[in-house]
Each structure stands twice: as structure tokens, then as C-alpha cells.
Amino acid sequence: MQTEALTDNMAALPGLGRPQWYAIRTRSRHEKKIASELRDKGLHHFLPLQTQIHRWSDRNKQVEVPLFPGYVFVRTLPVAEARVSVLRTPGVVGFVGNQGRGTPIPDKQIEDIQTILQQKVQFTLHPFLNLNQRVRIRGGCLDGVEGVLVGMNPDLSLVVSVDLIKRAMAIRVAGYDVEPA
After folding, report:
1. Residues 6 or more apart from 119 whose CB is under 8 A from it?
2. In Å, what is the CA distance from 143 to each residue of 114, 125, 135, 173, 174?
3. Closest Cα to residue 46, out of 112, 128, 142?
4. Closest CA to 142 of 127, 164, 120, 162
5. Which superfamily does CATH assign the domain made up of 2-105 to?
6. What's this model's pTM, rounded to 2 decimal places?
7. What φ, ψ does residue 122 adopt, rounded to 5°?
8. Model confidence at 117, in pLDDT bands (50, 70, 90)?
């Protein structure tokens, strides 16, 4: 599991607001190319990747594939000029959200996914859930990660969601203290 991300220290600019995370929809199998193009443009982005073993008739190979196929996250100012710069990137279909303008994603949801990938915690992709109680992990390397607590088989799992794109990932939380968020 690996991430391809740029961090930013951009402060709020007078009259423009502060940079926010947005999901952009991509053409099929264009996520890595778009991330590279955004990096070349100096735009802050996040493309969560996971390692998979792909088997061919003559060999097995480890391949980095997008965690959420069809999406790349970009951190930009909520102004038309910034959106146009992203939309002019080859392979970008559009922003996810109302009227193509994009709906901001809470920083916490992106930070939680980055933390899980950086800590190399085992996870599985999980269907998106609308209901159930949100919880927060207390202590350990995942301190502060929030998600929805669900029971899977005999163990407990925490589902970390990106609400806007209706995608989620599940990690085992057996042994971690959790509290209501």
C-alpha cells in the first residue's frame, strides 16, 4: 500500500477562502496519469494506491492500483480559475458534487485514509455505509482515525469512508480502544 500525495501549507487567501479537498472523476484507468499531470501543474493531489498481485500465464507481478478506481483527490481553492485548471487536465471528467462545481470533502476523511496507508495497516475495501454509529480510535498508531464501527465475522472492523464518492475501506480494530465520535 502506498500513497502518492503532496502536502500543502497554503493559507487562506483574502477573498478566496482556504484550499479544500475535492474528488475528481477520471476516465477509466487514467488515475496515475492525471496525478502526474496535476503534480506537473503544481496542484496538490492525493491518489491512494494499493499493491495487488496480478497473475498472468507466465508470471506474477506486484502492481500499484488505485484504491478508489475512477477518482483522484485534489486540494485547491474554491474558485472558478482553480477548477478550470484541474478540468483542463487530460483525462479529468469533472468534479464530484453539485452542478459540476464539486463538493468539498472534510480534511479529516482524507487525513484518515492517509494515516491508514502510511501506517501500513491491513485493510479491505468495504461497501459504503450510510447508517451506524461513528467512532474514533483512541491510542496507538491510529489515534484519532474516525469511521463507522461494524461487526464482520467474529471480529470488529472500522469502516473509514469518503462520503462524497460513496467509497470506503475497512480495518480490524480488535485490540484498539474506540469511543463515540
Report:
1. 141, 142
2. 13, 21, 11, 11, 14
3. 112
4. 120
5. NusG, N-terminal domain (3.30.70.940)
6. 0.77
7. -65, 135
8. very high
Task: Report the distance separating Cα 99 and Cα 120, nearest Å.
Answer: 36
Domain locations in the chain as residue ranges: 2-105, 109-180
Q: Strand pairing partners for 5?
A: 46
| pLDDT at residue number 14 | 61
Separation of alpha carbons 52 and 85, rounded Å: 32
As given in the structure block, the three cell numbers for residue 93 are 471528467
Query: Rounded to a whole number, what is the distance in angstroms from the first to the last CA of the chain?
Result: 27
Q: 15-70 pLDDT, tens per residue?
A: 678 999 999 999 999 999 999 999 999 999 999 999 999 998 899 999 999 999 99
Helix (H) or strand (E) holding 178: strand 177-180
- Distance, CA of 68 to CA of 63 (rounded, Å): 15
